[in-house]
Fold this protein.
Amino acid sequence: MDKDLEAIGAHCQYTYCNQLDFLPFRCESCKHTFCLDHRTETAHKCARAGAWAAARRRAAETTTTGTSQNGKPTLATGTQCSHPRCKTYINTYPSVGIACQTCNRQYCLKHRLGEEHSCATLTPLGARPASLVKTQKQKAQGALETFRALITKTKKSSGQTSLGGRKAPATSAVVTLADIRRNAKGDVKIPADKRIYLHVEAEPATTNSKLPSGNFYYNKEWSVGRMLDEAAKGLQVQNVNNRGGGEEEKLRIYHVQGGRVLEFGEKVGAGILNGNTIVLLRGVGPAVPDLITVHA
C-alpha cells in the first residue's frame, strides 16, 4: 500500500523534510521537487536562485531584438496614417501601409486612393518649392533674352541678316578660330580631320562653374548630349542630366551663332562651325528652334 502511495506523489527533496506530497512542485532553477512548504526558492534555499527568471529575461530580449532586426512591424515601429483625420497605425500586423507614388506619403487601406486623401491638393514630400523653380526659370529666360539682345545688336551693326544677308568679314572669323585652336583642349584620341574647335562659356546666372569659359575641341560625329557632358566636365559645371528630375535642373547648350538651344540628339557637326561659341545654360527648358529672329 505504501509503495502505491509513493507511486502517486513524490518526496520533498529539501534536507530534513522528505515529506510525501501528492501534488509536488518542481523548481525551474535547480530542477528539484519540493512540497508546498518548500516550493519557493527562498524556502528551500535554492542553490541556483534566480536562474529561471534570468533565462526568461534573456529569452524576452532575444525575441525583441530579433523582431527589430528582421524588420517585422510592431507598435514601436508603426506610424500613423498620413490622412489628417485618421488615427490608424500603419506598418503593423493588423494594418499595412500603402505608399502613394504621387504625394510620397503613406496611408491606411481606407485612405490609400488619391480621392480619399485629396492627393491633388498636396505638395509631394521632397519636392522643390514652386518659388525656387519659378526663380530658376526666370533666370534662364533672362539669360536667353540677354543673348538675344546682344546677338541682334551685333548682327545689325555688322549688316548681317539671318536669311540671305551679307556675311560678316571673314578676317575676324579666321583670327577668332586661330585663337581658339592655339589653346584648345580636348581628347587627343579624336582624329584631326574630325575635330571642331569651339569657344565654350558657362552662363553665370544659372550655373556655378569653376572656369567661366574656355576653348575646346570635340568630335563632329558626337551628339550634342555627349558634347554637353564633355563641356560641363571641362568648365567644371555640375551636370545632373542623367539623374532624371525636371527641366529646372538640366543643362542645355545654347548655340550663339545659330541663336537657338540645341537638341541633345543633334549631331555636333550638323549646325555648328569651327570658331563658333556655345553657352551652357541651366533650366532653360527643352530646345526651341529659332529663338532669335533678326529682321532685315
